[in-house]
């Protein structure tokens, strides 16, 4: 019997990249999955790829809008009754010099990356069973200062702070809260950041001790570990999955 049999997990930002890879792994492990995303076309494509009938629910939702999150939770409750886990994965990339950041930029990035994460967890709490698990998606940029990264990095640093502060907040219900922090991972978001330029990708690879860009499935495996009973005594922690990007100097 799979450790995820009959367990429902909500994934935001699930139409592509790490979210989609995590959904694929969870379904293979026997879970029921609710997949939320802002891009309806990507969600439809994900649903066609993943299949699994009644075990998969896709719901268009913008996590920066609390009304959308309320509708999302209503749909999840109707289909699955409750949740055993949440992967708050939705996020938007952004790069700009500090002098050029606008209020609209701030609202988009912080609204999605931080506000969206906080309220995804809050709105899911009535559905989340005692002893459940929450995983938040961070970023290596919260650990290394980079020009053009002030707003995005700050929004992800706030997400990492949420993991350590929500953990004691929800501990009385036995709910664990942890963060996974990816490095450079081959996703549509990376395509945006690099402009699909091989020269930029090569520069990114050169920053990584293992000398390569990560696969979404490698992040998904860590998310599954944190959602599973195998991590039952881990909470308030961050697991960095970056090929040595943050903590090592490449040869």
TrEMBL record:
Keyword Phosphoprotein: no
PROSITE patterns listed in its UniProt record: ADH_SHORT (PS00061)
SUPFAM superfamilies: NAD(P)-binding Rossmann-fold domains (SSF51735)
Keywords on record: Oxidoreductase
Pfam hit, one: adh_short_C2
Protein family according to the UniProt entry: Belongs to the short-chain dehydrogenases/reductases (SDR) family.
Protein name: Oxidoreductase
Protein species of origin: Microbispora siamensis
């Amino acid at each position: 019997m799979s450790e995820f049999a009959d367990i429902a997990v909500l994934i935001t930002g699930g139409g592509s990249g790490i979210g989609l890879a995590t959904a694929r792994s969870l379904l293979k492990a026997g879970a029921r999955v609710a997949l939320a995303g802002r891009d309806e076309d990507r969600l439809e494509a994900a649903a066609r790829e993943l299949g699994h009938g009644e075990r998969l629910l896709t719901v268009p939702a913008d996590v920066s809008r609390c009304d959308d999150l309320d509708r999302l939770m209503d749909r999840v409750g109707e289909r699955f009754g409750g949740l055993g886990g949440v992967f708050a994965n939705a996020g938007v990339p952004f790069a700009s010099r500090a002098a050029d950041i606008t209020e609209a930029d701030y609202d988009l990035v912080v609204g999605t990356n931080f506000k969206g994460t906080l309220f995804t967890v809050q709105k899911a709490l009535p559905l989340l069973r005692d002893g459940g698990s929450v995983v938040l998606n961070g970023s290596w940029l919260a650990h290394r200062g980079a020009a053009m990264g002030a707003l995005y990095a700050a929004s992800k640093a706030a997400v990492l702070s949420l993991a350590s502060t929500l953990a004691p907040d929800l501990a009385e219900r036995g709910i664990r809260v942890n963060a996974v922090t990816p490095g450079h991972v081959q996703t549509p978001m990376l395509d945006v950041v690099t402009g699909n330029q091989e020269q930029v990708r090569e520069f990114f690879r050169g920053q990584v001790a293992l000398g390569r860009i990560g696969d979404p499935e490698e992040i998904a495996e860590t998310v599954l570990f944190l959602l599973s009973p195998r991590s039952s005594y881990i909470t308030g922690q961050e697991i960095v999955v970056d090929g040595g990007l943050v903590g090592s100097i490449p040869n």
